Every structure is written in C-alpha cells, then in structure tokens.
Automatic annotation (TrEMBL):
This is Major facilitator-type transporter ecdD. GO terms for cellular component: membrane. It is found in: Membrane. The gene is ecdD-3. It is a multi-pass membrane protein. It comes from Fusarium oxysporum f. sp. rapae.
Length: 472
C-alpha cells in the first residue's frame, strides 16, 4: 500500500502542475492512461522471472495515475458543477469511490479461494474497466469554462458553459443565465481576484517564503488558501482514517470467527457506501462548516469509547468480547467519517483557491493527503504489534487529535456551501470564517441571485460592463 500511496502523492503534485497546461478534461484522460499502464505491468506476473519488480513498478505507476485523477476529478467537478449541486455531486463522487472499493472487495472475495495465477490476473484485469470507461465518458464532456476564461478563450468558455447549463430545448431565460454566469467568471478574472498566470514555482515560493512573517496568512490577515487546504487535509488524517482502515485486517484475524479479512472489508465498504446519502442529508441541513465540526465531535467520542473498551481487557480478560465491540465502534467510526469529513474535505479544498491557482493548490494539498497515507501505511504495522497501543493509547491520541480537528473547523473553515466560486474568492478576503454563514454579496461584487437570501440580483458596479459573446 505504501508504494501505491507514494505514487499517488507524486501524481497529485504533478497533476496540479499539469492542470493548467493540459486542461481539466485532458488531465482526467491522462490519469486513466497512466493507470492503465500501471495495471498492464501488474499483469506481467508469470511471464518474466522479475515479476515482483514489475508488480512494484506497476503499483507505483498506478498510484501515480490515482494521484492525478484525484486532482483532475475534483478540479473538473468543482469548476463545472452549479453552486446548488456542487456539494452533492462531489459527495456522490466520494460515494462512487466507496462503491468501487465494495466491488473490488467482492471480486477479491469471489476469487480468493483460488490459488493459481489466473485468479490474480482476473482480479487485476478488472482494473482495466474503470479507467477506460472514465476516459471514454470524459471525451463527450466540455472543458471547464473557468479554465477557458483563465486561458483567454472566452468564446469556447461560452460554448462549454452553454452545454453545461442550457437544457434542450433552449430558452431565452436560460441563455440569459448562461451569459450572466459567464460575465461573473470573466469579471472575477479581469479584476484580479486571483493572479492571471502564476507558475508552480512562484506559487510554492510565495507560500514558503513570502508568508513566513504572516504565519501563512494573506495580507488581509486571513489564512492563505494553500495553507488552509494543506491543514484541512492534515486535520482529516488526524481523525485516524488510514490507521483504522489499515489495522482492520489485523484486528479481524485475532478473532477466530472472523478470521477472513475480506468479510470485514465487505462489511466496512458497505458501511462507507451507506454513509454517502447520510452526508447529503446532513449537508443540506447544516452546511459544510457545521458538518465538519459536529462530525469531528462524534468521531472523537467514538475514539474515546473505543479506548475505554480496550482498557476493559485488563479488567475482564474477555478479549473475544472486546474485539467484537471494538469492531462495532470502528464501523461506527467509518460511518461518521464517511458522512462528514471524507466528502467535505475534498469539496472545500476544491472551492477555496482562486481559479488561477486552483489546480496547483489542489495538487499540493492532495499530495500532502497521500503523503500522510504513506506515513500511516509505514507506522501502522508497528503500532498494531504493541498491545497497549492498539487497545487504548492510540485511540486516546486519535480522540484528542479529532478534537483538534473540531477546533480547526470552528476557527478556520468558512461556510462555502451553495455559493458561487467567485463569491468564495471574496469571502476569504472580506469575512471571518466564524461569521461567513451570514455573509452577503456587497454592492461592489456580484449581480446574480444569492441562494441564501433569495435576493434576485445584487447591484453591479458601474466600472464593470457585461461580457457579451460575439454570438449574441
């Protein structure tokens, strides 16, 4: 697993650097091609004497493709989805990830009894299906309008946005809405809410050097978007998601009745899949900020209970019962994380950066996400061997780290649900994260309907003129 995660970390950073050069659409297709190459190398087992080396290289290249895809998919969906549907659709993407894990575990369970090389090849060959379907499907979708505007291709941006927003048959009202939305994107780009062209090296240099005196904050004393994205992914890892996922097989093997790790993996994959609709309901009622805060509190409570159960071993000596109870609490933990932090982190990390630097910001933050997964895959086997750490101490540590994640969500995470991306760029500069839920577009920005206040249109400053297409 560590090789796959390592490749994903480098792939995410590389994907962020290539996002503006290739475009969001072609970045997803590149990730599919890279992943197919990695799977092809893993299929070479039995044909060559150095099969193990090819499998390791294939896992590394496959992870590279996974990292690129994690950036390209979030980037594309963030910039193309309508603000009222963006959170639901990206949460659905996370649900599809859980569905993919469930399908993969089911196939592994079906062929797990076979010991010949054909079972391995069948399992690996199934991985060809999904990147090929993804590459074919993305071929028929338009490029991101925001990326096209950022590259100065305004006419193509109008056509792309028209395909995304205008259902058939086309009406004058829908055409007007498309023109208004594109005008907002164009004006946001022209007024310099984000730099027009920023190289990857300049972005990293600004973050590491120019922000040191401001403690990674912007001149407006708000946390820098790149710093925020990196810290957000770090707080997500502090919930212990990777440690729990990697330690489940070992905990299951300690129970003779549950000696097959695939059975546990099937159950927990199904639990994660069921959590996606739950997140959509919670997100609709509470929004992103409150979902993260209350989700972190629930996760912390779950860790405390798991630690208390682990301490009960020294008192009752009923290890069999304790294992079962801990498995139940771990299932509850996965449900809580998958219905709060897992989708919300990727949604917010995609919304916070400005369009000019969104690709690089998502790439670096996703790279940090996969880098934490590498560390977890390395130290988890050693922690599992320590009885006291597995039973209580590690869960107590995760409980306090989850409380730290709650504090981060309260003080630094703004409420971005159902807001246009151009509004989010302003809300980071003008408003404190704790009061962003009451933020309203001022008379110096925006002219579309605000979904929170139901105001039809905000006033447009006189210095701005509506962007009109040559088609009109």
């Amino acid at each position: 697993m560590s090789i796959l995660f390592c490749g994903a970390s480098f792939g995410a950073i590389s994907g962020g650097a290539l996002g503006d050069r290739l475009g969001r659409k072609w970045l997803i297709q590149l990730s599919s091609a890279v992943y197919v190459v990695g799977v092809s190398l893993q299929m070479a087992v039995g044909f060559y004497d150095s099969a193990l080396v090819l499998v390791l290289i294939g896992r590394l290249i496959g992870g590279f493709g996974v990292g690129i895809n994690s950036v390209g998919t979030v980037l594309y969906m963030t910039e193309t989805c309508h603000s009222s549907l963006r959170g639901y659709l990206i949460a659905g993407y996370q649900g599809c990830v859980a569905l993919g894990l469930l399908v993969a575990t089911s196939i592994a369970f079906l062929v797990g009894r076979d010991t010949d090389i054909s079972a391995y090849r069948c399992l690996v060959a199934c991985q060809f299906i999904w990147p090929i379907l993804l590459a074919i499907g993305v071929t028929f979708t338009p490029e991101s309008p925001r990326h096209l505007v950022n590259m100065g291709r305004n006419e193509e941006a109008y056509t792309a946005l028209d395909r995304l927003r205008n259902p058939k048959p086309q009406s004058e009202l829908n055409k007007q809405r498309v023109g208004m939305e594109l005008s907002e994107i164009y004006f946001s780009h022209e007024t310099g809410l984000g730099p027009e062209r920023v190289s990857f090296r300049e972005l990293v240099k600004e973050w590491f050097c120019a922000r040191v005196k401001g403690i990674a904050r912007t001149p407006h004393r708000r946390i820098h978007p790149l710093s925020f994205s990196v810290f957000l992914h770090t707080m997500y890892q502090c919930t212990g998601i990777n440690f729990i996922m990697l330690s489940l097989p070992s905990l299951a093997e300690s129970d003779e009745a549950l000696s097959d790790p695939l059975v546990i993996a099937l159950v927990f994959s199904f639990v994660r899949l069921c959590a996606t609709p739950t997140y959509m309901l919670i997100f609709r009622k509470l929004g992103q900020r409150r979902t993260l805060f209350f989700g972190g509190l629930a996760v912390s409570s779950c860790h405390f209970l798991t630690a208390i159960v682990g301490m009960a071993v020294s008192l009752t000596h009923e290890e069999f019962v304790v294992n079962r109870v801990q498995l139940v609490f771990m299932a509850l933990f996965l449900f809580l994380v998958a219905s709060s932090w897992a989708p919300a982190v990727w949604i917010i990390a995609g919304e916070i950066p400005c369009t000019a630097t969104r690709s690089r910001d998502i790439g670096i933050s996703a790279g940090v996400h996969w880098l934490w997964a590498v560390f977890a895959s390395v130290y988890t086997p050693y922690l599992i061997e320590i009885e006291w750490a597995r039973r209580s101490a590690i869960f107590l540590l995760l409980a306090f780290l989850s409380l730290g994640s709650c504090l981060f969500a309260y003080y630094f995470v703004p409420e971005t649900s159902r807001l246009f991306l151009e509004y989010i760029e302003v809300i980071i500069q003008e408003s404190d994260p704790r009061v962003t839920r009451e933020w309203k577009p001022s008379d110096t920005f925006g002219w579309r309907r605000d979904p929170r206040t139901e105001v039809k249109h905000c006033r447009v400053p006189r210095v701005r003129k509506r962007w009109t297409s040559l088609r009109e």
